[in-house]
TrEMBL record:
One of its GO terms (biological process) is DNA integration. Keywords: DNA integration, DNA recombination. SUPFAM superfamilies: DNA breaking-rejoining enzymes. Residues 202-380 form the Tyr recombinase domain. It comes from the Bacteria. Pfam families: Phage_integrase. Belongs to the 'phage' integrase family. This is Recombinase. GO terms for molecular function: DNA binding.
Amino acid sequence: MILSTPITDAAIRRHSADLSVFELRDPRHPIRFRWAKCRLRGSVHLVVHARGKSIWRKVAPWPSVTVAQVLSDLPRMISSLIADPSAPVQASEFVSFADLLRWHGDRVAKSRSLSKSRRDAVASQIRSQLLPLFGAMTLHPSRDDLDQVMQQYQQQYMVDTVRAGWGVLKKASKDARRLEMLSHDPLAGLAFSDLITRRPVRRPGRLRPSHAAGVLAQVTAASDTAAMLCLLALLHGTRIGETRLAQWREFDLVPGGCWYIPAAHTKPRREHVIPLSPLAIGLLLRYQARQRAAGYRGVYLFPAFNAPRAIGARDATRLVAEVSEGQWCAHDLRKLARTRWTDQGTDHQVGESMINHAPGKLAGIYINSSMREQQRQAIELYHDWLAECDPAGMLAIAAK
């Protein structure tokens, strides 16, 4: 029997036990519902009369897509089917950007290809920025709607932050469309520059080469772990994550040795090999000896305080802040190193490879070299300069 009744989730459940009813027909909307054999699920169909005939399309599985979701997407589906009866039509599983963002957040949280810091960053962007601004917006926004929200976004946050949030939003809509969770990509064809024309302000580093002596004086006065954390970053221009996660097995502490940072610890997800100077090897061997004398036999250079793992990102950042008294951060040490390499005449490509920046498209194609010898020369020259800047002579002693 075909029963004429307003189709809702409650109506479907109410009539599920009545085996004489195999189809529901909605008198208000051109949709029908048919049960599967198990009567626990079914399909919503769109029925449109166009060009002298009835056109049926299965548009949604129930209950994974609710009737309310189908009805919210109904005008678009009807228009699409009338315009092109052969076109595929499907209801979106999401009604608003809030649905899309929560789905994307769950996917990111379960992803093993992303670092924990990246998963946490995306979760924070969704929770604190994107949901409050975009959550109530339908997945069929007008250009004007998007423009208004993006203007609010940039009024509340810096341009770099807005660009990062837009990237998360674009990734969510693109992935949902690729997996057919959306019938369309609501942001297709839109670039960040279409909505935000203001360029980000590039903030200069808080440290210049002329500050090296002061930095080394602060490091010398710090605790052993904090001092070595800062020194390792300053000596090699490494990121805070690459530095804090360092394990002893990554270092060849012999003349001509290197530090092999695994791909999982680097931002571009590729192994980074850094030549070790005699100065760096001396510092590391002395630090290792002090660790062992204190009874530590673990694998990390910077172990967590109360757990068998590396120090966390927040604790590492706090240690650097204690050393610098809030005057600079770990990224400023990285910028100082890169600036000095340029000042001492290091080739641009060599310098970029030393801080593990991805090569440009053409450079990646035409330059097939690790540039290890040039890197070693640049590192040793830089470390000699740092030793000359060291007021306490700590680095000069380590180099012997």
